[in-house]
Amino acid sequence: MYDITLIPGDGIGLEVTESMKKVVETAGVEINWEEMIAGEKVIDKYKTPLPEYVIESIKKNKIAIKGPITTPVGKGFRSVNVALRKELNLYANVRPIKSFDGIKSRYSDIDFTIIRENTEDLYAGIEHKIGDYAGESIKLITRDASERIVDFACKYTKDNDYKRLSCVHKANIMKISDGLFLKVFDEICNKNGITRDGEDIYCDDVIVDAAAMNLVLNPELFNVLVMPNLYGDILSDLGAGLVGGLGIIPSANIGKDYAIFEAVHGSAPQIAGKGIANPTAIIQSAVMMLRYIGEHKAAILIENGLKKIFKEGKVITVDLGGNASTKEFTDELCRIIKNSI
Ligand code: NAI
């Protein structure tokens, strides 16, 4: 029995996390979900969308899975996601991009992962005005943060039996900041036994603009891509677009002590409460979480169930062109999983 913090979140969050819980239970993993309310519902009471008790629960359990949280526009709250990342030092954002047979998208057979440094670069918030005629944002790249993200990427590449690890950068122009990232990349890859001329596993580097073009032209040539924050933010959404959009893509924010798994999509207020949301993204996030805690058998069961349901194409949610409700999709997925146990 695992203790895991569950933040259902706002909008469709409740519907998709209910579905996810049922699927994980069907796959045979017993979890004591510690449900924590954050987001819109608690703002009036606690004057923040992220009360301290939510952070305390994650610090206690070490692992959390969360639904989307509405970011109130213009009310001055910092984004819950950014706050959690900072508070828990979740330095690695991991986004696997995989295509499913049966989901209409530009490509089939895509399987790569973007690993984005989550704590610095232009997102460090070092900004200032220069009078009223200029604004300046500082791009900060440190050796420590670069070392730990590249080390994480090396281990991820090996653990998942990928062949190629690519560093995405713009060191030809930003010779000092991205130059340091690239230099550290080679050092840490070497320490992990991954070299540029390796046979079974190798590393290389790609300039970010060329990476954007090649991800669109030949995405199947990539395996694992590691990069500073800003490039990761942009290319991970590009990746989602290659395989059918944000509705199916999972992600993980991982640090030394804690990990939070979450769907990439938002709270979709237009369809909230209608029972038609697609729970695939949060279910795939749960698959990542199960792998993280070592429940590989259950992870494979769920992943194969998803492959089957999409390939058959009979019980598909509205966003992917079908007419199944969240409940019908969940029940069918659970039936497939039960049959394969
Ligand atoms: P969104 O992802 O909620 O919606 C974009 C479009 O995709 C809408 O048409 C929506 O109906 C559809 N969609 C999204 N997820 C779906 C699902 N699982 N099944 C079926 N259709 C789905 O993005 P939007 O509208 O920009 O943001 C809405 C709210 O969510 C905002 O308050 C935003 O701040 C918040 N948000 C929260 C995130 C998080 O907590 N991780 C991430 C992105 C947005």
TrEMBL record:
State what protein this is by name.
Isocitrate/isopropylmalate dehydrogenase family protein
Family statement drawn from the similarity comment of this UniProt entry: Belongs to the isocitrate and isopropylmalate dehydrogenases family.
- Which of UniProt's keywords are assigned here? Oxidoreductase
Has UniProt tagged this entry with the keyword GTP-binding? no
- Pfam families recorded: Iso_dh
Source domain of life is Bacteria
Query: Gene3D superfamilies per the record?
Result: Isopropylmalate Dehydrogenase
Domain Isopropylmalate dehydrogenase-like, residue spans: 3-333
